Amino acid sequence: MADETPLLRAQSVSLRFGGVRALTDVSFAVAQGEIFSIIGPNGAGKTSMVNCVSGRYRPTEGRILFEGRDITALRPNRRAGLGIGRTFQNLALFAHMSVLDNIMVGRHHLLRAGFLRGMAYWIGGAQREELEHRRAVEEIIDFLEIQHVRKAPAGTLSYGLRKRVELARAVALRPKLILLDEPMAGMNLEEKEDMARFITDLNEEWGMTVLMIEHDMGVVMDISHRVMVLDFGRKLVEGTPEVVMADEHVKRAYLGEVEAA
């Protein structure tokens, strides 16, 4: 995390829907190799901020920079091509497709397309490319410990396993930055522990920078390098977990602590 240029920078980002302000003048930076978490109550603007980073929303004001490049006007598929992957708060899997095929969908930005690729089938090039992608997907399946359901339709899996498959599909892009929207939502304690371990390993072993929204404060404070708190679309505080935990507003609003009488 010593690189002087942040991998991601949001500069004075504001977002309005008609007369409603979802975000107001939010700035932050995520360094290469960080796990950076955004917390706050429902309606605080967390998902709106991630949607501005992924390209689903375009900020009303401000800029989004990735590796020093202004990507504010780029579409989501262009950002994916630059190395930004994401999961969603609500599962977005293809229920009737197998786990393997769902994860293969995540590789489509890495496929070489066009007329020459069609010709390559006759000399084995495309077959070799597909084999490479299959091997990459199998590596992800092994890493996330879902070998036993690799051929099962995604819609038949438990909720926890489906969340793991969605993570696998995002990882299949091999992103430089992965955006995780409430990856532990709806999980039991064991599933949360597994997911936290996978996220940490993706960061430490696979070198992926993580921008995460999560309501489980224990998980956030345990695995994050830095944390930003949003409330009503504004940034309240940003810093290490220790700094955020010590903030009086955070303790009152999010950790259930009250001032002594």
From TrEMBL:
User: Which SMART domains does the UniProt entry name for this protein?
Assistant: AAA
Q: Which UniProt keywords apply?
A: ATP-binding, Nucleotide-binding, Transport
Q: Which Pfam families match?
A: ABC_tran, BCA_ABC_TP_C
Q: Where is the ABC transporter domain?
A: 8-257
As recorded in UniProt, coiled-coil segments are: none
Q: Name one GO molecular function term.
A: ATP binding
Name the PANTHER family for this protein.
ABC TRANSPORTER ATP-BINDING PROTEIN, CONSERVED COMPONENT OF ABC TRANSPORTER FOR NATURAL AMINO ACIDS-RELATED
Q: Specify the protein name.
A: ABC transporter ATP-binding protein
